[in-house]
Amino acid sequence: MTEIKTELDNLIPSDRNVERLNDRPLETPSEIKAGSFYINSDELFDGNPYSEFNNAESVIGNPDELSQDDRDSSTGFDRRGFLKSFSLAAAGASATSCIRRPEEKVVPYLNQPEGFVQGKAKYYTSTCKMCAAGCGIKVKAVEGRPVKIEGLENHPTSYGGSCALGQASIQGLYHPDRLTTPIIKSKNSVKNAEWDEMWGYLALRLAEAKRVAILTEQISASQKALYETFLTKMGFDKTDLYTIDSNSLYAQKSKAHQLAFNTTNYSRYDFSKARHVVSIGSDFLASGTHKVLFAKQYSKARSRVGEERCKMTMFESNMSQTGSRADFRHAVPAGSEIEIALALLDVVFQSDAVKTNPVESKTIRDVLSANQASIQKGKSLVSGKVDLSSLATHLLENGGLVTCATGGDFDANGTKLQLVEILLNKAIGAYGNTVFIDEAPFVSGLNHTDDLQKFLAASAEIDTVVVINSDPVFTVPESFGMKAILEKMNQVVSIQYRPTSTDQLAHALIPAHHYLESWGEQQNLHGSFSIQQPVIRPTQNSMQPEDALFWIAAHAEKPLGFQNYYAFLKSHLTSKLGGAGNVELAMKKAQKIGYVGLGSSSKSAAMNNVSSHLGNVQASTSGLKLKAILDPRLTDGKGSYLPALQEVGDGLTSIAWDSWLGLNPNTAKKMGLRRFDEVTVSGEGAGSLTVGVWPQPGLDANTAMIHRGNGRKVKESRVDDGIGVDPLILLAKGVDELSGTPVTTNSISVKKTGKRIRVVSMQKPTADLGNRTDIVKKVKSDDVAGLTEKSEQFYSNPDFPDLFPNLPKGDHYWGLSIDLDQCFGCSACMVACAVENNVPQIGRKLVGMGREMHWIRLDIYFQGPVDSPQVTLQPMMCQQCAHAPCEAVCPVYATTHDDEGLNTQTYNRCVGTRYCANACPYKVRRFNWFTHKWNKPHAGEPPLNPRPMNPDVTVRTKGIMEKCTFCIQRIRDGKMYHKDPVTKRIPDGTVKTACQQACPSDAISFGDLQDESSEIFKKRYDGRSYLALNADLPLNKDVDLHKDHPHYGIKTVPSVNYLSHVVESVPETGHHSKNHGGKEHG
Amino acid sequence: MRIRWLMALLLLSVIGIGGFTAGSLVAGKVGSETKTVNKEDPTGLMKRSWPNTKWWFWTPGDTVDNSWPVPYQPKQPIAFSHKLHAGKMKMDCQYCHASARKSKSAGIPATESVCMGCHKVAATDREPIKWLANEVKEGRAIEWVKVHDLPDFVRFHHKPHIQAGVTCQECHGQVEEMEEVYQHAPLQMGWCLRCHQDRGAPQKCYTCHY
Prior knowledge:
The complex is a heterodimer.
Chain A: H1 2-11, E1 37-38, H2 42-46, H3 51-54, H4 79-96, E2 100-101, E3 105-106, E4 122-127, E5 136-142, E6 145-151, H5 164-168, H6 170-173, E7 183-185, E8 190-192, H7 195-208, E9 212-216, H8 221-233, E10 241-243, H9 249-261, E11 268-269, E12 276-280, H10 291-303, E13 311-316, E14 328-331, H11 337-350, H12 358-370, H13 372-382, H14 388-396, E15 400-404, H15 414-427, E16 435-438, H16 451-458, E17 464-468, H17 472-475, H18 482-488, E18 491-496, E19 508-511, E20 520-523, E21 529-532, H19 545-555, H20 565-573, H21 583-593, E22 595-596, E23 602-603, E24 625-629, H22 643-648, E25 661-663, H23 665-670, E26 677-682, E27 688-695, E28 703-707, E29 745-747, E30 749-756, E31 778-780, H24 792-796, E32 814-819, H25 828-836, H26 844-848, E33 857-863, E34 870-876, H27 885-889, E35 895-897, E36 903-905, H28 915-919, E37 926-927, E38 961-962, H29 968-978, H30 994-998, E39 1004-1008, H31 1015-1020, E40 1025-1026, E41 1056-1059, E42 1061-1063
Parallel strand pairs in A: 9-10, 9-17, 12-13, 12-15, 13-14, 17-18, 18-19, 24-28, 25-27, 31-42, 32-41
Antiparallel strand pairs in A: 1-33, 4-5, 5-6, 7-8, 7-19, 11-16, 16-23, 20-21, 21-22, 24-29, 25-28, 26-27, 26-30, 32-39, 33-34, 35-36, 37-38, 40-41
Chain B: H1 2-33, E1 54-55, H2 82-88, H3 93-96, H4 111-119, H5 127-137, E2 144-145, H6 158-163, H7 168-172, H8 189-199, H9 205-208
């Protein structure tokens, strides 16, 4: 008490008339003037960021849909009488009825495994199989149950990072919608079958079959070998193995390299060596072939200072997350990517510094002469916006890299675009510097190009199809008639680990193991391959698809020659593991490390003359084009049954549990469409759909965007039932002729239905946001070197007194740093945090009411004109303020400050006043409005929320506040097991928060600020660093701490600091609102 | 007005009777699942039923000195005597409860790995050992009833306590003199805090509640 008293004495000035700085009345929403930042474009057009709420027609939530328990029900009692009688009854009841508390059992192992310590988790290595990249993962298993997936450090594909889909995939293991028993469907009946029954049935059917095909997604080499062995041994044709991956980029790249270099391995990028990256439509960070790897590499390239720092120029038609990182971004019409690429090739080739040899030069000359029209078109599209010759010069200096794609969707020029990319990289001399062709295969692409076309062509003769872990009925556009083809088959066998649309057409359904329960392997970079091992005994009555094939063959009396798939795998890997001598040992070693690095050198590859394939490039056309994009999180629908992914939402719009039609705001305005207008969209295909409009800054004027992944036609999983729309139904049957992959873009027409429909998004424009300059700071890249280093004194500004006491510091002081220059909004951090901390997913209705439970959220800020905005993505979690407003207002001391800098939440003490959430200026506190139980649904919430519960974190019930804790359970574990007893230090990097560990671009750093050699110490006092809502100072050397200190913000002194976004130029404010009066920021 | 009071009385009796039956049903179910193979029960402690139960608002012994009316002593599936093993045989606590110095929980010895380590050959003529051998043969571990049970919002970590030199007996009592384990200490927050204050250990909320 004495301490506080002294401070108060100094506060009260003798002169009562001192004007306190920053003392102005709270503004009411109607007085908010649009500032330079905006979240949705409505702020620019209407001037009022609240227009969506003030507009009487806008539908916030249908009041009739409110759940029954939210409404008053008439009971016949009036309120007082009810309270009186009920309280009497309750008092009496407690006296008479004593409910016994059940005993808690504690059950040990029967046979405890070696090295197992109760209370400590075990970590197993494995490979994520949610996409073809095959990132190495480390799975944390508690008493035999996996609870968390993390990236495996040093793995050549993941380097410790992971993506949102990989993080969420653990929910698929415990998912209640997994098939629990084999099913045999006949014309009249659906029957649960025993395994023996199933094998007998299938053996019989396959004996009768004339031609059997296996349909699957990207598979590994050993899987391919097994499937071919199966087909051969069963007497069928081994070429009837079709791998149809909905990310056609793999097929297109593979085909292009086959044509150019006679190899199906495609080039390996190394962004970390690049100094200028030109991306023509390639969303390589969020949606390409190896997004985690490229994000890791690219973040290294961006973190260099000065001349060496990598810059990116982006030409794209949709607003992608990679585009949000671009230094120079230009929106171009959909379909014109190849024209831009050819134009660039032309300009590069004209330069004297071009790096091709005579053979390559001839090829390029042929290509250019055959495509003059496209080149002219490309040049005209970018004229006035970018100077191609200076771009070419920049690329020709060492360290250029060009990457091309069509931005998450695929058009008819896909493979041709890849060929032009090869030519461009050859021309700028990228091969051998930033792009490499390795001796050993890069990925298990394994020549599966043309497989879709081959299957369609052969389908008339095929009578039995075995579909393994893929969903061609949903992922191949409707117009290809997959459904009709499969319906015609005599027998469709569907072996799936998740509910799929293909199951609806199958005659025999076999529940497959989740990848965490399976054996396998995956080829990686440099010829290395990673091991996939089971981390848990099968949780359901399921089987690995490969083992199912073994059983079928055995029952058909045509055994495959091995006992099971594990034996087959070992034999297949024998040569790679070092010969037959010590396969067991080598396998165990591989399992321990997670991958076997065989090391392969890159080679120089002679290029064929590909000009013949680039003869007739399809020209881009005008008119509104739809891009049906692979959602960066849900991909093609693989992730739609995982509630964590649905809830995390889109990175650039924060739309969750929904689909939307993305349109350029100016285009929408011209078409008379507002946000939340419901429209009917029809394309060149047979289908049409109704969806809500969401004006999205950054889109090209004639491009519309709908993400794939949602829009199931019948209920497959309780999670994605009735969610969103499927844009594939709009597409006509178009094919990229070189690789046979489906085209997922075409023209559409949009018509208003007259209704309004709620599209659920999480980020709302908040008061005063646009005016503040202390939330997002930007610094020009030229000015970075001249920035002042910070100090704790600078942050906590002792000149300005406040009421908070100085708390004693313990052995550690935890800090976290977020680099706004690296974050591109993949949301892996959000999913990792939800999985680590038992954060529930609450479903569409509650998210729509604003009750999202994310402890870390992604805020999106646009600045500049809507056609080409500058985007900053800011992850925001509890700032662990040293001067925390939330601690001051808790009436029961449920939130206190610990001596290590954390703002701790004592869950059992909280009574649910929610005053802390009111006081928090960052609005990062979350209240449990309901108990989102694992096994009890609440209205509107996906019933059975499959969360792998982390036993180290308290599970919260209704009425409790929660928020980010800097993963205090990990901090405790770090202190318990890794603290040096003498120096009291924990080695830097031992304790990692879940978000930091997941982030593929290393945007988040965490550590002990008292350790001056730690990474976080450098980042907190870096010149670019600032504290959100604090220290609203320009960041330059000439600031005098004592004189020029007018804006210190709200002085919460957070432990989280942000590193400013480094930009080439800060855009002028782009709003045209009539309220623009140049308000002084204060 | 009279109707209101009548309805209240009705509600009260309904809840009372309903609760009582429900409670006894629950209690009955819980009790019937444990196996009792206690031919050797010299103290008769195991036959008492009501100290074996906990209620939502109170546990026997839930007073400051943990004595009234009797300490919590639930029935265990097998008559394992710490007095014999830890007292007479002088086995170390951490021989069986090995995780105590390494992690949060002290751990219960694995039935086959630890218990059968001796009992494959030791005292194999006794009824309880025969029962144990049979359980192991059929692949079932022993389902012990937890005596020292803290609520879920308390996070207790054994390792720092052992490292600070706190003996097992300080919190768990003279276990080596117990035929059947009972809860020696009240385990209430005040009891924990008193020792923390005496020894200068951390006394912040977040030490145990996070």
